[in-house]
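Appendix B. Worked example

We walk through a single record from start to finish. Start with the input: the chain for GPI-anchored protein LLG1-like domain-containing protein, Brassica cretica, length 112.
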Amino acid sequence: ECEVDFQSKNYTDLTRQCRGPTYPATECCAAFKQFACPYAHQINDLNTDCAKVMFSYITVHGNYPLGLFASECKETKVGLVCPSSPRVSAAPHHITLVVSAATAVLAFLVLV
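Next comes the structure step. The output line below is what the pipeline stores for this chain.
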């Protein structure tokens, strides 16, 4: 179970900035990071279904192709870089974000 209520989140910025049919990587990835980074710890906790739930709602609200963010959003070889939050230590954290359990595609959020 996920402690974040992704059902009630506002997806407007994400869906406004990331639009088909071309889904421009720069805009889509920036919007995805803006939406997902605040929840990186919860999304990357593989003991919860937060990643699955979040991507389900992103797909519902944006009608995005499966694996869009995993295939387009790569900043480093380990994934996306999220700004650290006050409760994160100064050392970088490499955290795997499961994008789609159905396709076993992985994206990564890295807190620095």
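Two observations about the output. Confidence is low (pLDDT under 50) at residues 88-112. The longest strand covers residues 93-100.
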